[in-house]
Write a structure and sequence with these properties.
This protein is of the alpha/beta class. It is built from 14 helices and ten strands. The protein has helices spanning 23-26, 31-46, 48-71, 84-94, 111-124, 140-150, 173-182, 202-205, 250-255, 263-266, 268-277, 281-301, 329-341, 367-384; strands at residues 78-81, 102-106, 127-131, 155-161, 187-191, 209-213, 225-229, 316-320, 348-351, 354-360. Strand 2 (102-106), helix 5 (111-124) and strand 3 form a beta-alpha-beta unit. The longest helix is centred in the first third of the chain and has 24 residues, at 48-71. It starts with 22 loop residues before the first helix and ends with a helix. It binds pyridoxal-5'-phosphate.
């Protein structure tokens, strides 16, 4: 594996003065990937009419095939979308819900996706049922039991995160999908953090739909994400924007949703190449090990506890912030703003009656970054005490 950490930081345009330890929120596209995106833009603007009609359709399908090979799926079952939120919206807004139907979500589900569930449920008079994710340090069996306990005869879909946002848990997805399928419940996976944080084999997971981001851990340009739909789930599935392809099939509907800049999608193969150049699976394993080491280090320095460890953790980790007083959203927002002002982007979240600091371990990070973060966090905590 090539050298990582500081040795590869020049590959990104990241500010060296700022402590970037939050790859999980918005990713960061390396210079080589942005150059590939620029190249696509140049080709597009050189002959826009010819590009859109004669170059783009095949180039998009080629990018989907490359992505399919990377995530263990057929390219023909993959549509590019702008982000995981849009992918989840497409699935949820395509459902034909009846009054009293139920949608299962997780207590740690991402706010934007939970809002989408609420929206479609309210429109139909359906119910949102929450399966509790135990926290901190949950056990796989307890997670599975809570999801199984939330399913009923009225459940029309279960919306499950692959990797949770605020708590950074890598959920036991194969087992969750299997138990839902046994109960006859289709599964939409919010895989915003999945691709290139953990090895992905969508065929083996067997979910009905999987919405994944390429602009987070795969380091594609922002606005590159995908929706994978099992072949038997494509017929009644529509993009958020209906365009010329309406009624003509999954790819016809999703591949053209009006004129837009598709360069982020087309540069995604360059991001896959970059990820493989830095080690691919070995890089993911290295990031997971670094996140575990960093989480333990910060928990030790702050004399507190980690929220995740072992099989349920990936390239992110969370540490409880030892503060007295209210652990409200407002307090969390204030802490986040203070951390930003102090020169770092590590986010905070309210969970299980406490405020947690989340760290990410990307290729350009190394353990020194978290020593620095621990110092900054300790200073900020002294300020608010
Ligand atoms: C679990 C989860 N779902 C969805 C999203 C939204 O991703 P995007 O803004 O790319 O749609 C995020 C973003 O952090 C997330 O953590």
């Amino acid at each position: 594996m090539p050298l990582l950490g500081k040795a590869v930081r020049h590959e990104w345009a990241l500010d060296r003065e700022f402590l970037s330890v939050n790859h999980g929120s918005f990713g960061a596209a390396p210079r080589a990937v942005l150059a590939a995106q620029d190249d696509w833009r140049r080709r597009m603007e050189h002959q826009p009419g010819r590009f859109m009609r004669a170059v783009f359709p095949d180039a998009l399908r080629h990018a989907a095939d490359r992505l399919g090979a990377f995530v263990g799926a057929d390219g023909k079952d993959i549509a590019f979308v702008d982000n995981a939120t849009t992918g989840c919206n497409a699935v949820l807004r395509s459902l034909r819900l009846q009054a009293d139907d139920e949608i299962v979500v997780l207590s740690h589900g991402y706010g934007a996706v939970r809002n989408t569930v609420r929206h479609v449920a309210e429109r139909a008079g359906a119910r949102v049922v929450e399966a509790e994710v135990p926290f901190p340090q949950p056990q796989t069996d307890a997670i599975l039991a809570n999801i199984a306990g939330a399913l009923t005869k009225r459940t029309r879909v279960a919306v499950v995160d692959h990797i949770t946002s605020g708590s950074a848990l890598v959920l036991p997805l194969r087992q969750i999908v299997a138990l839902c399928r046994d109960a006859g419940v289709p599964v939409l996976v919010d895989g915003a953090h999945g691709p290139a944080q953990v090895p992905l084999d969508l065929r083996a997971i067997g979910a009905d739909w999987y919405a994944g981001n390429c602009h987070k851990w795969l380091c594609a340009p922002k606005g590159s994400a995908f929706l994978h739909a099992a072949p038997d789930r494509q017929r009644d599935l529509h993009p958020v924007t209906i365009s010329h392809g309406f009624g003509k099939g999954f790819l016809a509907e999703f591949d053209w949703t009006g004129t837009r800049d598709p360069s982020a999608y087309l540069a995604t193969p360059a991001a896959i190449d970059f990820h493989q150049r830095l080690g691919g699976e070995a890089l993911m394993a290295r990031n997971t090990a670094l996140a575990a080491e960093a989480t333990a280090l910060i928990a030790r320095r702050l004399n507190t506890e980690a929220g995740t460890s072992g099989a349920l953790s990936g390239s992110m980790g969370v540490v409880r912030l030892p503060i007295a007083g209210p652990t409200t959203q407002e307090r969390s927002t204030e802490l986040r703003a203070r951390l930003l002002a102090a020169g770092t982007d590590a986010p905070t979240h309210v969970l299980a009656g406490a405020i947690w600091l989340r760290i990410s371990a990307a290729a350009y990070n190394e353990i020194d970054d978290y020593e620095r973060l621990a110092e900054i966090a300790a200073r900020v905590l002294r300020e608010v005490r």
